[in-house]
Each structure stands twice: as structure tokens, then as C-alpha cells.
Amino acid sequence: MSHQPTSRHSVLVLVLAAVLLSATGPLAGASTPSIRLDDLSQHPSAKPTRFEVTNDVALSGLRWSHWGAPSATGTGALRINTCRPICAQGRVRVLQGAQLQVRGVRIDQGSRYYRQYRIVDPALSPAERAMYSRWTNAYVPSNF
């Protein structure tokens, strides 16, 4: 006497197969190229924890949301050296909770990079807001 699978057994096998396929997917194991961000340090990376705008302005401790989307926002500490009277004697202002916003994607040397950035923080002075809150072209390796 041969044992024929019941329709309940067939449905269970199909459901398990569907769950396994959705968990592994056809692209499982295939890596999707990540979007990188480059800065003055010339060390591009995905979701960097540090971003150097100039030698005297940098963000650190960045935690990102929506990385890999058309735009992303990193929140961290913004350090600004006032460079008054000179940078070696300047006061360093630290603004906790500053946001580094990035947008757009550019292909450079075969890799994807966020194309623009800006820094947003309500504690920026009007002069700092004019300087850092506008969209600025981000670096890519071919800039160096």
C-alpha cells in the first residue's frame, strides 16, 4: 500500500518552502553595493561614525537613519574650532545632537557615494548656519 501525501501535507510543504524562499531570497549571499561617504580624511565608508568638514570642524559619534536610501541623517556631536585669534588658540564649541544630512548618489571609480551633505543644528550661529546648513558637494576619491 503506497502512501499518498494528503492535501494538508502538500499545503504545509508549500508554506514551508515559501517561508524559506522569503528568508533566503534569490539574492541571499549576493552583496548589494553600499553607499559610501567620503570626507576630508579620505577614508570613505558606509555609515561613518566621524565626518571631517575641515581641519577645524568635524562631527563624531554619528548614528545613522535610513542609510542606503536616497537620503540619510546622522546624529552626533559637532565640534567647531573658532580659530580666534588663531586656530591653535581657538575655543572649541561642541554641539550635541547636531545632524549631518546626506543626499543623492554619485558613482565614482565604480563605487556609489552620497553626493551632497549639510549640517543642521538650532544652536548654530547665523554665520555658521549660512556656512554649514547649505547643501555642499561631498568629496569622492577622484577629488584627491
Automatic annotation (TrEMBL):
Signal peptide: 1-28
Keywords recorded for this protein, A-Z: Signal
Keyword Signal included in the entry's annotation: yes
Protein name: Uncharacterized protein
Lineage start: Bacteria, Bacillati, Actinomycetota, Actinomycetes, Kitasatosporales
